[in-house]
Amino acid sequence: MSDTDSSQAINEPPLHELRDQQDMRSSEGHPISIIDAFLKCFDENGTQVFQIPGHVMTALAKRFQYFMDGNAPTLDEAFGNKTGQQRNKVKMAARNGEILFHFLDELERARKIPAKNRNSTPFEIAAENTAEAFDTSADHVKKIYKLSGPKSHQGV
């Protein structure tokens, strides 16, 4: 079946993808999000599964045109330089999210342990268990938690 075959349905992206795309439009400082939004429209085999939003196509076209017109000597520069660093920041944020959610699960579990049966606070137990699961330090887990949100976390 060809890409132009009208019988092949291209779906609209899920709502969370649309929200991510709105965030991308407002974050021109991170052009790697343009590439990410484009790639999310394809499966692991490279088959298009979602319609590519117009603003993503426009952003890609502008970057490629900028490169092709000779205004940028490399594609990296056309995409705002440091795309590798931008990609690593996106991956780090995703990993930190995984760590945070694991920590919250561990915290919930630790709170269920009666105080007389534990040798530390639920927070400390959760931080240690999460650090072990992700091969990082408990201090790093605590930092991710404290940076994650409400001011109420700051005193924990």
What does this structure look like?
The protein is mostly helical and 156 residues long. The protein has 2 domains: 15-78, no CATH class; 83-150. 58% of the residues lie in helices and 0% in strands. The longest helix is centred in the middle third of the chain and has 29 residues, at 83-111. Mean pLDDT is 81; it is low at 1-7 and 18-29.
> Helix segment count?
7
Radius of gyration: 21 Å
Please write the string of helix (H) and strand (E) elements.
HHHHHHH
Supply the helix-strand structural class: mainly alpha
Tally of discrete structural domains? 2
Strand residue content:
under 5%
The percent of residues in helical segments reads 55-70%
